[in-house]
Amino acid sequence: MPDVWTSVRDLDQATQERLADVLEKRGADPQQQAMRRDLLRGIPFPRGAQVLDMGCGTGVLTRVLAHWPNVASVVGVDPAPALLEKARASAVGFQNVSFQEGDGRSLPFKDAVFDVLVTDSTLSHVPQPERAVVEAFRVLRPGGCLAVFDGDYATTTVALADHDPLQSCVDAMMANSVTDRRIMRRLTSVATACGFEVLSFRSFGFAETGNEGYMLTVVDRGADILCSQGHISEATAAALKEEARRRLRAGRFFGHIAYAGLVAHRP
Ligand SMILES: C[S@@+](CC[C@H](N)C(=O)[O-])C[C@H]1O[C@@H](n2cnc3c(N)ncnc32)[C@H](O)[C@@H]1O
To answer: How far apart are CA 52 and CA 50, in angstroms?
Structure first.
């Protein structure tokens, strides 16, 4: 099963709606908000900064950037028209925000027009992500900054012990929904090879224990994937989902994803 995020426009409307909801739900999560703001605080935005949000989705980060100190304007770019439609609707009244359809590997902009390019949870979904880093270098002005925030998704876990059956759901989900689960491990060298100077590389943790949040959706979607691929029966998928809920009720649920953030500048 291919990574759904690489081709959102080809999915049926109901699935596109569901993915848009996933993004807004994740955007509203306090831990995710704190990580995002922490990353933004490490970016040296020049006064009057022109900013690009690459892979903006429904515009969660674009809307934060619009009010960030020193930011004059933000463009959100994404290849999925349905997500851009949601992004535009949510940003009505924002005077300094616009959205444009485009691919991060061939951006519809001239050379050296942005001061900062930010990308959140997108690079891991882009086949040949190196090409997007080359494009970032091209559209940034000399002195401009690239900021990448993404999951180190190979670390995603809900396991309480070795051979925990719930972990197979998480592994199936990540294998089928993230094109490059280890891009953040290579990003420092990729950015350097493209000509960037890395200013910082930081680790962030996302943990969920007691609430029906994002990690429960990961277990559920993973169980559905294993079932649709014929690895487990519908009854087993239902039992795995129930096991996750049983742990929540008992206060024993644990989920964790390591995220990482890189800030680099174009000399
Ligand atoms: C997990 S979503 C993250 C969206 C948003 N940045 C956020 O954090 O809410 C991944 C996004 O990458 C976009 N995407 C997929 N392939 C892309 C590409 N080649 N260039 C730019 N964006 C891409 C998808 O359409 C989707 O909006």
So the answer is: 7
